Amino acid sequence: MNWISETRHFVFDLDGTLILGNQILPYARETLDLIRSQGKSFTVVTNNSSRSIDNYFRFLTFLGFHIKPNEIHTSGKATAQYINQLKPEPSVYLLGTRALVEDFSAFGIACVNDIDAEPIDFVVLAFDQEITYKRIVEASILIRSGIPFIATHADINIPTERGLLPDCGSLISLFQTSTGIIPKVIGKPNIEMVEPILKQIGVKRNEMVIVGDRMYTDIEMGWRAGIKTIWVKTGDLNNNHLTSPGVTATSEIQTLEPLYHTLLNLS
Ligand SMILES: [Mg+2]
Question: How far is the centre of ligand 1, averaged over its atoms, from the C-alpha of 90 (Å)?
C-alpha cells in the first residue's frame, strides 16, 4: 500500500467498515484521528437514506468518533445535491423519513404531500420506513404521469439484528413492477454518490481512496469513478457475485489495522 502516500482524502464506508451495528470496529477511530493529525481529510459515507446527517453526527459522536457534520455523506444528501443541479429550488414528492425531509429542506428542496400540487418536479424514493399504501399509490400516479423518478440507493436488504429486512431496492422493484418505470439511482456504486465529495474537497481522483467492505457498492464505485480502493474484509462478504465483471480493489486488507500502520509509517 505504498501508493497511499499520495492520498489526501479518504472516503470510508460506514457499516461493515468503521462500525458493525452499534459496535466500533478495531482501529476505526484511531485511523480517522491519525488521518486528521497528518493534515489529510476524510468523509464517511453510507447508502442508508433513512437517517439525516444530524442523526449520523450525533450517533457517531456518541460512539466516540471525532467527526463533523460536513464529513458525513449519505445517499439522501447526494440525491438532494443531484436534484439541485438539475433544477434550483425544486419541488419533490418524497417517499422518505421525517429525518430525510429535514435534510432536503436544508438543501432548499420543498417536499410536497399533495399530489395535485403544482409543480412537482421529481418523485424521490428513499429508504422510507414510514411508507403507507396511500403514499405508494400517490407516487405511482405521479411516476406514471411522467414526472422524473429518482431513488436514493438500490440496496435490496438491510442487515439488522432481526435478519435481512427490505430496503430501498425492494421498493424500487415494487414501483418497477407496477409502473414499468426504472428510477435513476444515486447511491453507491453510482458515481453520483462520490462526485459531490470530489467537488467539495477539491482533490483529484488520484489523491482520493475509497475504503469499504462491499465489492459491489464501495469497490465498484471506485472502479467506475477511476478512484483507488481498499477492500477491508470486516463486513458483508457474502454477495460478491453482485459485482460487475472486471471490478477489482487496488488493495485488500483483513481489518483496518494494516491501513493504520501504513499511515503511521508516513508520519
Ligand atoms: Mg458497508
Answer: 31
Nearest-angstrom CA–CA distance, 160 and 169: 16
In order of 172, 188, 189, 213, the CA distances from 154 in angstroms are 7, 8, 9, 17
Q: How far is the CA of 163 from the centre of ligand 1 (A)?
A: 16
Active site residues: 13, 15
Estimate the crossing angle of helix 28-37 against helix 257-266, to 10 degrees. 20
Among 96, 142, 151, which residue's Cα sits nearest to residue 120? 142
Judging by DSSP bridges, how do beta strands 19-20 and 23-24 pair with one another? antiparallel
DSSP state of 214: -
pLDDT tens string 207-243 = 999 999 999 999 999 999 999 999 999 987 777 788 8
Q: Which of 138, 160, 185 is the last residue of a domain?
A: 185
Protein residues with C-beta less than 5 angstroms from the ion ligand 1? 13, 15-16, 213-214, 235
Q: How far apart are CA 98 and CA 93, in angstroms?
A: 13
| CA 101–ligand 1 middle distance (angstroms) | 24
Rounded to 5°, the CA angle 37-42-47 comes to 150
Which domain CATH number covers 161?
3.40.50.1000
Contact (CB, 8 A) for 218 and 211? yes
Q: Please count the structural domains in the chain.
A: 2
pTM of the predicted model over 0.85: yes
122-125 and 149-151 as β-strands: parallel, antiparallel, unpaired? parallel
Distance 2 CA to ligand 1 centre (A): 24
